[in-house]
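[SOLVED] Predicted holo structure with magnesium ion

Edit: marking solved, answer below. Original request kept for reference. I posted the sequence and ligand SMILES and asked for the 3D complex as structure tokens.
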Amino acid sequence: MAVGKIEIKDVSKIFRRSEEEQTLTALDHINLSIEPGEFVSIVGASGCGKSTMLRIIAGLEKPTLGEVIFDGETVTGTSEKRGLVFQNHALFPWLTVWDNILFGPKSTGKIKDKEKIALAEKLLKQVGLEKFKKTYPNQLSGGMSQRVALVRALTNEPDALLLDEPLGALDAFTRMSIQDALIDLWKSEENTMVLITHDVDEAIYLSQRVIVMSPRPGRVIEDLKIDLPYPRNRSDKNFTYYRNHILEKLDFAHQEENIEYMI
Ligand SMILES: Nc1ncnc2c1ncn2[C@@H]1O[C@H](COP(=O)(O)OP(=O)(O)OP(=O)(O)O)[C@@H](O)[C@H]1O
Ligand SMILES: [Mg+2]
């Protein structure tokens, strides 16, 4: 059976600010189903609840209403089946690249597993960093660190990898090369990918489906299948069509928000 299915069922998240007894609705009745092995991106204005949604899928945060079902089971906490990569790669500075990558297997006692080591070697080679095993994080560029963070997450063999703007802090050139590495990793590992990004082109370039969210409170306002073969061409006319369509949705939602605000 294919694994890595994510079902978000009527999820709302309301934060309470106890001091003033104010509440803030971050997510408003989100329904979304992600198939095993699917690559889905989520775009939306800053503060619309994207990270909150990812944290709920990961099990780091509980929904106020609704539930997330992962491979048939309600998510109640974190699990190594769901890996996470953030914008700030958070490598351990006192460990080498290789020891960072093997941190997970070491802590779960799988370090002697030959297949694990072979997988880590293979993934590191795939991102072009096989010569940097003994290097410490402070000697790596931001792009290299993010590659290590991706390899580290995938070495734990998660069924789903949750990515919260993992390339957000990188320059455009580095970003494009890691986007290609990410597609390569996804194709070889066949896990589910959920990517949050502010970059509409990145979403179209990488994913099979793009979810557009409204400004806060976050709702799903568009669920768009990207029907283009890989590798994709950013100047292709169909690519441009998807880009314009998503940008229009984002802009329209933003204008609607302003009208509500003015009332
Ligand atoms: N722990 C918390 N307590 C109170 N409010 C919170 C908490 N976490 C998030 N929020 C609020 O929920 C809303 C959504 O936050 P979230 O970080 O999910 O947005 P986002 O879409 O990821 O934004 P960005 O694109 O800037 O990363 C924001 O208004 C934020 O202030
Ligand atoms: Mg965020």
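OP edit: The chain has a mean pLDDT of 92. Thanks to everyone who chimed in.
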